Fold this sequence. Notes:
The protein has 475 residues and is of the alpha/beta class. The chain has helices at residues 22-29, 52-66, 109-116, 121-142, 154-161, 184-191, 217-231, 300-318, 335-347, 420-430, 446-449, 451-458; strands at residues 3-6, 12-13, 18-19, 43-50, 87-88, 91-92, 96-98, 104-106, 147-152, 166-168, 174-176, 199-203, 239-240, 249-257, 266-273, 279-287, 324-329, 352-360, 377-380, 385-388, 409-415. The strands form 5 sheets. Strands 1-19-20-21-18-17-14-15-16 form a 9-stranded mixed β-sheet, sandwiched between helices. Strands 4, 7, 8, 9 and 12 form a 5-stranded parallel β-sheet that branches. A 3-stranded antiparallel β-sheet has the order 3-2-13, covered by helices on one side. A hairpin with a 5-residue loop joins strand 10 (166-168) and strand 11. The longest helix is centred in the N-terminal third of the chain and has 22 residues, at 121-142. Mean pLDDT is 89; it is low at 164-180.
Amino acid sequence: xxxxxxxxxxxxxxxxxxxxxxxxxxxxxxxxxxxxxxxxxxxxxxxxxxxxxxxxxxxxxxxxxxxxxxxxxxxxxxxxxxxxxxxxxxxxxxxxxxxxxxxxxxxxxxxxxxxxxxxxxxxxxxxxxxxxxxxxxxxxxxxxxxxxxxxxxxxxxxxxxxxxxxxxxxxxxxxxxxxxxxxxxxxxxxxxxxxxxxxxxxxxxxxxxxxxxxxxxxxxxxxxxxxxxxxxxxxxxxxxxxxxxxxxxxxxxxxxxxxxxxxxxxxxxxxxxxxxxxxxxxxxxxxxxxxxxxxxxxxxxxxxxxxxxxxxxxxxxxxxxxxxxxxxxxxxxxxxxxxxxxxxxxxxxxxxxxxxxxxxxxxxxxxxxxxxxxxxxxxxxxxxxxxxxxxxxxxxxxxxxxxxxxxxxxxxxxxxxxxxxxxxxxxxxxxxxxxxxxxxxxxxxxxxxxxxxxxxxxxxxxxxxxxxxxxxxxx
Length: 475
């Protein structure tokens, strides 16, 4: 018999209290790691690369982010669009943004014009990457910077977007999707990955106060500053509140990505998330496509090696091994994969390993009225398969914050010592651990939701290039 219930919204832990919403939690209780001032720097040194107009606009925006930013006047959704508390000592993030001209590197207008004039889209993007990388490299090697913001001029953005669709995500970071094989954002992040500072890309258009089709200033500031805070880390804006009596747990996401030319084999990657939510990235080995389901799968030896490396990274970060590991995949687990993961866990004396497949679902639940089901709606289909709405109406926001009809995800419990209810609550909590967005209704758990961005950047690295393990270099 099918059973329907609604899960409580997972709570987040901040420096001085708990809340369900990152924005309200930071404003009221401060970022989580600010309660331990001896283990964190109270400054963020911001480097910047862009043309003169872009650098000037970025300076004005950073100055604005230092102070309080009112919510948009007349908004009827005050909880969804709250005022910004300011990125300054003693408030919210409790840090000082350090910015001065010595930490900036201008890109010449003549160089931008030269890039725009290149006829080949592939060569145009490649040259744009070189122009920005030269200045990024100088800052990373010759200046003390924690994060480098790259302001992409509008003319350059239009030139490297080609015929594809150009969008700016909620953190202001420019995502240039092109129909060709080159992508400016991904290629630049990959080329600069060996340097000491993560990058944050911004379209110049996003910095214009009168630009149309933009988020309100307070929401922009929340997303931009949270990403900046995390990337300048390791810093912890918030963490999931958990029962102290429970044994330590580690979440691992297994995913795959193809080469840029789609000719070579898929390569595996693992994303490990510790108790604090820190993301650790590991690149695996090339894998073959299964003839049975046309999906990539790991051999037993590959699965054992990948999970063992992932847990070793966890041990280095946390100084101990977890008692329990939950492995998420977006495709079925093969017997060989399960055997390999079990072998790695046994080698490292892990007590429990749970396996959960997380898929998009075509099934829908309808609710009376004009609004979709609540986020957290859980439908038990048959004991092993469960439908979970991670996006939907949110009682705290008093609305549905999305633009399109939400689609649930399906949890298939392959093997677990935990109950389906526990696993669903765990997945719902992990949807709130993407520090690139402060609206807490992400669709996928961070173990899988960020895999696409990671794979998009990793495919630009050569086999001899060493990937960074910190997720901040990919987001």
